[in-house]
Specification:
Elements: H1 7-12, H2 34-48, E1 52-56, H3 64-78, E2 82-86, E3 99-103, E4 106-111, H4 113-119, H5 122-131
Parallel strand pairs: 1-2
Antiparallel strand pairs: 3-4
Helix pairs in contact: 4-5
Length: 140
């Protein structure tokens, strides 16, 4: 729960870990926010402790602070296992050992963040587009 950032959420629940989540099955279920549900799914994947961790847009519903928290813990979460991280948020690629850009169902580029920026092709363009709004003094 700590690694997924759910400890404080669990502590506030009426029955702790025994609290029902959602109301599809249990009328007394607690409704989680999108970010809390995303963290719960991450906690379940980490609890499984399998050799491969597959995360598809794991931070899409998180605010920037919570997203950063996940990124800062990512190395610890994935230690000793293979991890596949699918994301359209290219800021998350900075901590990846290898990036594979897929477009039109085909691998278009492959390498590290620095390699792909130096290549100056699709990845570099996408990264530049996403990052330009965070750079001071840039004219758009």
């Amino acid at each position: 729960m700590d690694k997924a950032g759910l400890t404080s959420v669990i502590e506030k629940l009426p029955n702790g870990l025994g609290t029902h989540v959602g109301r599809e099955v249990y009328l007394d279920g607690t409704l989680f926010s999108g970010g809390e549900i995303q963290r719960l799914m991450l906690a379940r994947a980490l609890y499984k402790d399998g050799p491969i961790l597959l995360l598809d847009e794991p931070t899409a519903a998180l605010d920037p602070i919570a997203e950063n928290d996940i990124y800062m813990k990512y190395s610890e979460m994935t230690k000793g296992r293979t991890s596949l991280f699918i994301s359209h948020r290219l800021a998350s690629t900075r901590f990846c050992d290898r990036i594979i850009l897929i477009a039109g169902g085909r691998i278009r580029e492959e390498g590290t963040h620095d390699d792909l920026l130096a290549l100056g092709d699709e990845y570099a363009n996408l990264y530049t587009v996403q990052s330009r709004y965070y750079q001071e003094g840039k004219e758009f």
